[in-house]
Amino acid sequence: MKVPLLDLKAQYRKIREEINGEIQKVLESQFFILGPMVEALEREIAADCGVPHAIGVASGTDALLLSLMALKVKPGDRVITVPFTFFATGGVISRLGAVPVFIDIDPVTYNLDLNRLEDFLRKNRRAAKVPKVVMPVHLFGQMTDMKVLMEVSRRFGLRVVEDAAQALGARQKVGFAAAQNEEWMAGAAGDLGCFSFFPSKNLGGFGDGGMVITRDETLACKVRLLRVHGSKSKYEHDLIGINSRLDALQAAVLRVKRKYLHRWTEGRRRNADRYRALFRETKIRDSLVSLPREQKGFYHIYNQFVIRVKDRDALREHLRKEEIGTEVYYPIPLHLQECYRHLGYHPGDLPESERAAREVLALPIFPELTLAQQRRVVRAIADFYSP
Ligand SMILES: *Cc1c(COP(=O)(O)O)cnc(C)c1O
């Protein structure tokens, strides 16, 4: 019994007729770029996130890039983010000529360490180059504590772009006295929030796609202009933008899948619970395998189920031989990438990110995963540690 890391064919089989029907509609319309299908998806995602504006763009990377452009990030500006993330988070900063400032992660959540952020800001308050924007990444599907992050950001005058590429549907309780059960959706708390519809994300299209959400009408208008070369009406350009539009075929696919997203997320969460129960039975020590922890008040959507293990590479090889799919997100933190050598970071500078890069391993968690498959995964891991 093979256990793939992700089985998109199993998902497609269940919704094939519906998807094919919607794709057919787009083909009949011959309306491929933006248009009514994209607008409908924008309205739906905006409503899901509880914000007034959503703008469909060509990828998650472009969603981040356009957000920074809308905030007028310029060459030489400093933008704070984490080094333990997909490359795009740092790449978009550099593409605008701005300089990424990497702050280490919290070892439990793998998200931006907010104490270190505050420390950094306090120490650099009077520096000539005060950062302008902070980009938290809601890694693996669990939000950074946005209540704390927004408070710190406002205090130091930072704008906030949320990289929620892995966290569509994640949320956080923010028990304010007036509204004890108020919840914030990933992407909705900052100035702008960014999603990716890359096929392997929890809401994945049949190609690239992304979306920006915001509560700010001015920023929404800007992103809308910037995605079409800054053009309000044909051949008149108010801003210098790029070409980054979501296409109707992707929107058609995503609109079908969106209806199932909550059910799929609940499937991922059930699988996470099952892993917890199965690992408990094995009695593997915490020092060998530690499981992801869902923070109190946070709804984790488990885009990935990432464990921290001893002898990671040998375990991964063992699982590969057992035909169990795994992945390492991410083996090299951004501050140690060749292309960022000029920034002058050294090994040991951001120890939690570097340790995570050595120890993490993502296990299969997709909604269609069966209990029998999960048993196999856990047994194979237990065998590795006590042969
Ligand atoms: C996937 C991802 C992106 C980029 O999204 P694309 O749609 O592939 O461009 C950015 N940040 C993070 C954290 C991601 O996981």
Can you offer a commentary on this structure?
With about 375 residues, the chain is α/β, with parallel strands linked by helices. It folds into two domains: about 10-260, Type I PLP-dependent aspartate aminotransferase-like (Major domain) (Aspartate Aminotransferase, domain 2); about 260-385, Aspartate Aminotransferase, domain 1 (Alpha-Beta Complex), CATH 3.90.1150. The chain has eleven helices and 15 strands. α1 (about 10-30) packs antiparallel against α8 (about 250-280), α2 runs parallel beside α8 (about 250-280) and α8 crosses α11. The protein is globular, with a radius of gyration of 21 Å. Pyridoxal-5'-phosphate binds near residues 61, 163, 166, 208 and 210.
Please state the overall shape, judged from the principal axes of the Cα atoms: globular
Can you list the strand order of the major beta sheet?
1-9-8-5-4-2-3
Largest sheet at a glance?
A: 7 strands, mixed
Number of strands: 15
Topology:
Layout: H1 8-29, H2 36-49, E1 53-57, H3 60-70, E2 78-81, H4 88-95, E3 99-102, H5 114-123, E4 133-135, H6 146-155, E5 159-163, E6 171-173, E7 183-185, E8 192-196, E9 210-214, H7 217-226, E10 231-233, E11 236-237, H8 248-282, E12 289-290, E13 298-299, E14 305-309, H9 312-321, H10 351-359, E15 360-363, H11 371-385
Parallel strand pairs: 2-3, 2-4, 4-5, 5-8
Antiparallel strand pairs: 1-9, 6-7, 6-13, 8-9, 10-11, 12-14, 14-15
Helix pairs in contact: 1-8, 2-8, 3-4, 3-7, 8-11
Pyridoxal-5'-phosphate binds at residues 59-61, 85-86, 88-89, 137, 163, 165-166, 196, 198, 208, 210.
